[in-house]
Amino acid sequence: MRIEIEPGVHLFVDIEGEGLVPDGAWMREKPTLILLHGGPGFDHSAFKPAFSALADVAQIVYYDHRGHGRSDPRPSSEWTLDTWADDVVRLCEALGIVKPIVLGQSFGGFVAQRYIERHPEHPGKVILSSTSHHMGLDRKVEGFVRRGGEGVRDKVRGLWTEPTPLTFAAYWEACRDLYTATPQTDPMAAQRTLLKLDILLHFIRGEMQDMQLLPGLSRARCPVLVVAGEEDPVCPLQDALEIAEALPSRCMQLARFPACGHGVWRDEPAAAFERLRRFILE
After folding, report:
1. Which of 87, 167, 181, 217 could form a disulfide with 246 if both were Cys (CB 3.0 to 4.6 A apart)?
2. Residue 173 lies in a domain
3. In three state form, how does the secondary structure of 183-208 look?
4. Does residue 175 contact residue 156 with C-beta atoms inside 8 Å?
5. Does residue 49 have a cis peptide bond before it, meaning omega lies within 30 degrees of 0?
6. For position 276, which CATH number holds?
7. pLDDT bracket for residue 216 (50, 70, 90)
8. Is 122 contained in some domain?
9. Which ranges carry the AB hydrolase-1 domain (predicted)?
10. d(CA 56, CA 276)
11. How much is the average pLDDT of 162-191?
12. Cα 78 to Cα 29: distance, rounded to the nearest angstrom
């Protein structure tokens, strides 16, 4: 479905599972889990079908960020973390969601960190999954070199310093299979994804270069689970540890997954979803 979140702006939204379930003499309300996808420029499809594993404990809201996927095309002036973070609140207001659990994966984690800064009282809980707080170019380069050898060094540095369609194509060909620690078994996943490359290149060229999200994390008021794969090349473990350190200690939980890469559920689905389930139910 398409939801209008402000005049003339529609987001594509998909909802899985009931919000109210029979429980004896009552109708019990399940928490709402809102998934913020990675990219930028990609869509929500990377969460499917894996996150159906949580539909018994939460109503799941998938959506495409403003300008992405099946949501309305929007001008580049709106391709900002502030706008995307505020859209979480706008979407909740449109759907009547109170105190959501917000999971931000990768770039979605950038959005979730800015959401914490700008709207600290809004979420019930936040999950920061396989994400970073800054560009961290040297860490990215070394992470991919560890996974793929010296042959990928220039391709990694090329995209993140000179983002163009050509540097992206070279990077993606060399590095896309290095994101996870184990080979992925769904050969059609990439074909299902809707990519708007202009958004990705615009963000890397602009806001990402000087992005600094740590200061805003001190404003967190709700429980925040930081999830990190120890073999993640693009959002390295050290970034996750620094995010955890920047959060108020009373709020922060940290889950490290050895031998996992970017999006730990891709490498260890049973362990990853068990940890997310516990956090949702706490």
Report:
1. 217
2. no
3. CCCCCCHHHHCCCCHHHHHHHHHCHH
4. yes
5. yes
6. 3.40.50.1820
7. very high
8. yes
9. 31-135
10. 12
11. 94
12. 34
Q: Is residue 150 part of a domain?
A: no
Question: How many domains does the chain divide into?
Answer: 1
Q: Is residue 108 part of a domain?
A: yes
Q: Which amino acid is at 44?
A: H
- Contact of 108 with 208, CB cutoff 8 Å: no
What is the secondary structure of the chain as a DSSP string?
Answer: -EEEEETTEEEEEEEES-SEEEETTEEEEPPEEEEE--SSS--GGGGTTGGGGGTTTSEEEEEPPTTSTTSPP--GGG-SHHHHHHHHHHHHHHHT--S-EEEEETHHHHHHHHHHHH-TTS-SEEEEES--SB--HHHHHHHHHHHH-GGGHHHHHHHHHS--HHHHHHHHHHHGGGSSSS--S-TTHHHH----HHHHHHHHHTGGGG-B-TGGGGG--S-EEEEEETT-SSS-HHHHHHHHHHS-TTTEEEEEETT--SSHHHH-HHHHHHHHHHHHH-
Other C-beta atoms closer than 10 Å to the C-beta of 53 total 17
- Whether 222 and 126 have beta carbons less than 8 Å apart is answered as yes
CB 5 within 8 A of CB 87: yes
For residue range 219-239, what is the model confidence (pLDDT) as tens digits?
999 999 999 999 999 999 999
Q: What are the structure tokens assigned to 31, written together?
A: 């928490």
Which residue type does 12 have?
F
- By residue range, what is the domain housing residue 106? 2-134+180-281
